[in-house]
From TrEMBL:
SUPFAM superfamilies: P-loop containing nucleoside triphosphate hydrolases (SSF52540). Residues 39-210 form the Helicase ATP-binding domain. It holds the Pfam family DeaD_dimer. Residues 242-386 form the Helicase C-terminal domain. Its EC number is 3.6.4.13. This is RNA helicase.
């Protein structure tokens, strides 16, 4: 174990001026122990074996020196990071892009399975200098000859033990075998099982036969017991519906909401503002002065809710934050410590809330071990509970207003209304209540029925064999005609402003709707493509909030602008010449194909996905 040096700053680590300038902008001043040891070693040309628990700052430990090795003028892959999950890959990519924001011409590409090859291939062929991806998709791109590692300067395996647990070891060995001997290598892992030590011994010894620098760092201090942790499983309601219900019923002072990307900060903030909440984004798009102004407004109470990404929120110290909401779970468990550490400050109590999907439940066990705490499971208020809450709050407001007195003028107005209209005071009060109800319903509509569909999907996730099969194929299971009949769903037809002219395919549309609208892909019906638009079937009674999200969602860089199309019907026979959809498959295997018009059930995957049998 290397000796840990203290009292250093990032300026002491000989990082490039552009990187130091960005770190200063991000309020990064003091490096963590693993950064103090790994950064100089990597910048000196050594290979590194990092044995570090979560919460130690590994991303910056390899990301910062990696950026110092990159030549932004060279349009070729120079830094490769292999991560176990798409979530971690996205987070690492965003962090590296944030660190390198001052480097002109730097491009960071993220590649992972369950998503179209086209945009990822375009990014690689465009010369992205930094590539972050999952093993299965990286291996596919290597085999296709798209990922060229001839100019690679640094290869990093992040969360190696997690990749071992997920069965990626053979893929990793193949990827590392393609790394040039002249490239530096780094491997980071929370634990060092024999298979990982064997991998390190094979790939981390340099050309001269020198062993890697072995860095061992203890985990950060456990999260304070004053932080209560609660988790809600995403089902029935969308995340946004659940978030607004919680914010309406919670007693909070300041709330910090964590999302995955900078664009998410804007989108979530817009929806919260539309619902009447005092929210603001905190993203990398803001300069230092704007960030300081936003934090000042949070402290003063002009803003009560801040929506931020992990990287930007590092170093944020606002004692008044009573709640942290993990709207999107972090890509790695070390970020979870940083997130919930934003609350419960100065000896105060705080609460951390997590939104998770069934397939993410295993992460919660990691969080419990890491924080030495317990995560409670809860349900967000249902429609009946929300209605009662609103009625109670209104009653309290009315009683408070009456208690304050000074209502003589208002009483005179009511008496005049009674005299002029012969209405009773009860009728006037009821009419005013009805107007209030139009703005914020006191009787909330019943929650949507799709909750049972989510529970059905959850049961499938609990089946180990089915979960393994799904991972081997892709993120979405292959579906036959029974799926839709069993669900017994009634559909509405929607029109989206994306079609064949934009290069859209049915699987692109399904991916956008499933990911952005949080709709299980098996409940997306028939899709029919035309030149300039497409038709898609979605369940009846789709919540307005979901429709608003889908209106802004993009397919092939084109905004969907989805709208209900009650007069249009998805045809299953030959359409008029000149507006004939082509290129789609029949709704299910063995179904007869209509001449000219072929429809595809949402969720069918492209041939490249069917060929892949690795988890992404």
């Amino acid at each position: 174990m290397s000796e840990v040096m203290t009292g250093q700053s990032f300026a002491d680590l000989t990082l490039p001026a552009a990187v130091l300038k960005q770190l200063e902008k991000m309020n990064f001043t003091t490096p963590t122990p693993i950064q103090i040891q790994a950064i100089p070693a990597l910048m000196a040309g050594a290979n590194v074996l990092g044995e570090a628990q979560t919460g130690t700052g590994k991303t910056a430990a390899f990301g910062l020196p990696g950026l110092s090795l990159v030549d932004a003028k060279l349009r070729a892959t120079q830094m490769l990071v292999v991560a176990p999950t798409r979530e971690l890959a996205m987070q690492v990519a965003e962090a590296v892009a944030e660190f390198g924001q001052q480097i002109r011409g730097l491009e960071v590409a993220t590649v992972y399975g369950g998503s179209a090859f086209g945009p990822q291939i375009k990014a690689l062929r465009g010369g992205a200098q930094v590539v972050v991806g999952t093993p299965g998709r990286l291996l596919d791109l290597l085999k296709k000859g798209v990922l060229n590692l001839s100019a690679l300067r640094l290869a990093v395996l992040d969360e190696a033990d997690e990749m071992l647990n997920m069965g990626f070891i053979e893929d990793i060995e193949t990827i590392m075998a393609a790394v040039p001997n002249t490239s530096q290598r780094a491997l980071f892992s929370a634990t060092m099982p024999p298979a990982i030590r064997k991998l390190a011994k094979t790939f981390l010894v340099n050309e001269a036969g020198e062993q890697p620098l072995n860095i061992q760092i203890a985990a950060q201090e456990k999260a304070k017991a004053t932080i209560r942790q609660r988790a809600w499983q995403v089902r029935g309601l969308s995340k946004m519906q659940a978030l607004t219900r919680l914010l309406e019923t919670l007693e909070y002072q300041r709330v910090l909401i964590f999302v995955r990307t900078r664009s998410d900060t804007m989108e979530v903030t817009e929806q919260l503002q539309a619902s009447g909440f005092k929210a603001s984004p905190l993203s990398g798009d803001l300069n230092q002065a704007q960030r300081e102004q936003t934090v000042s407004q949070l402290r003063s109470g002009r803003i009560e809710i801040l929506v931020a990404t992990d990287v930007v929120a590092r170093g944020l110290d606002v004692p008044e934050i009573t709640h942290v909401v993990n709207y999107d779970l972090p890509g790695d468990t070390e970020s979870y410590v940083h997130r919930i550490g934003r609350t419960g400050r100065a000896g105060r109590s705080g609460e951390a809330i997590l939104f998770y999907r069934a397939k993410e439940r295993h992460l919660l066990r990691h969080y419990e071990r890491l924080t030495n705490g317990t995560i409670e499971y809860f349900e967000v208020p249902n429609a009946q509970e929300l209605s009662l809450h609103r009625q109670t709050k209104l009653q309290e407001q009315i009683m408070h207003t009456v208690a304050q007195g000074k209502l003589d003028e208002m009483t005179a107005i009511v008496e005049k209304m009674q005299a002029d209209t012969e209405l009773t005071a009860l009728q006037i009060a009821t009419a005013l209540l009805a107007q209030h109800n139009q703005q914020r319903p006191l009787l909330v509509a019943e929650d949507p029925a799709p909750r049972k569909f989510a529970e059905r999907a959850e049961r499938a996730d609990r089946n180990p064999r089915e979960r393994r099969d799904r991972n081997e194929r892709s993120e979405r299971p292959e579906r036959g005609p029974r799926d839709r009949r069993d669900a017994n769903i009634e559909f509405d037809t929607y029109r989206i402003q994306v079609g064949r002219d934009h290069g859209a395919r049915p699987q692109d549309i399904v991916g956008a709707i499933a990911n952005e609208g949080e709709i299980d892909s098996r409940y997306i019906g028939q899709i029919q493509l035309f030149e300039g638009h497409s038709l898609v079937e979605l369940p009846k009674g789709l919540p307005t909030a979901v429709v608003r999200i889908l209106q802004r969602a993009r397919v092939r860089q084109q905004q969907m602008a989805i709208e209900l199309a009650p007069g249009e019907i998805i045809t299953r026979s030959k359409p008029p010449r000149g507006d004939r959809p082509r290129g789609e498959r029949p709704p299910f295997k063995g179904a007869p194909r209509a001449r000219g018009a072929r429809t595809e059930r949402g969720g069918e995957r492209g041939s490249e996905q069917r060929r892949s049998r690795r988890p992404q």
